[in-house]
């Protein structure tokens, strides 16, 4: 049995009213308790169930595995600038050497030289490359990012996120998810 399930997690995939996940990365999941509460508050429809139920002396309720919102939530078009979203845009690899671990973020134009913390000036960098570049410009350090940093769209982040499926995908979710495991991360 999967760790999520064996620990009583029974996560529930949350779909928008159009049956698309609210987000791919992180995957839009609720606890089964939050999903059951939303069912009783008439905010969601149950789409799929687990083979599991919660019981009281006079009541039994099958646990949902997939729910859809009754009201459509308009997806944001401009993702928030966060460390995680920078890593997701850069596909979780150092933009200087391609290493996938020990990631930090690096300012292309260092803050000490007036560089801002913006999509266009920050890239994912492993700690060794970040230390090597220090507060030098890319030209001074002779280190150039693999791609020019840019402000991604939500669609671009979702597309990148689909290249990194989570460790746990319940079989009832698969018809609603579009993971592309053939892509190189």
Kindly describe this structure.
This protein has 6 helices and 6 strands; from the N terminus they run αββαββαββααα. With 185 residues, it is an alpha+beta fold. It has helices at 3-6, 32-40, 83-89, 127-133, 138-141, 154-161, and strands at residues 12-15, 29-30, 44-56, 59-69, 103-107, 122-126.
Name a few traits of the molecule.
single chain; 185 residues; alpha+beta; four-stranded mixed beta sheet; two-stranded antiparallel ribbon; elongated; disordered N terminus; disordered C terminus
Give me the secondary-structure topology.
Layout: H1 3-6, E1 12-15, E2 29-30, H2 32-40, E3 44-56, E4 59-69, H3 83-89, E5 103-107, E6 122-126, H4 127-133, H5 138-141, H6 154-161
Parallel strand pairs: 1-4
Antiparallel strand pairs: 1-2, 3-4, 5-6
